[in-house]
Amino acid sequence: MSEARVRPERFEAFHELIVAAVRGFPDLHPGLVDHEVLIAPPDSLVYVSRWRGEEDLVGYAGAHWRERPVMLPGEEEYLLGPLVVRHFTHAPLA
Fold this sequence. Notes:
Layout: E1 2-5, H1 11-22, H2 25-28, E2 32-40, E3 44-51, H3 54-61, E4 84-85
Antiparallel strand pairs: 1-3, 1-4, 2-3
């Protein structure tokens, strides 16, 4: 998941940019199991993606996926600071 802290005056434009960019991801990245955009206006947007496995994630984000967030061209102009990226693995309930 990655959280973007967005300039409030640019929030709607950023939300539209992200949704348009990720809409086609399932067709482009077959290892992407599920994804969603979560918003908390006026300044927070979270992109959550679930992948079949680490190999598929590497295919999308590159070998340095743990250290370097994937950013769209020009994305930084919308942000108040760097993206916060966190990686989780599935932990069964039982």
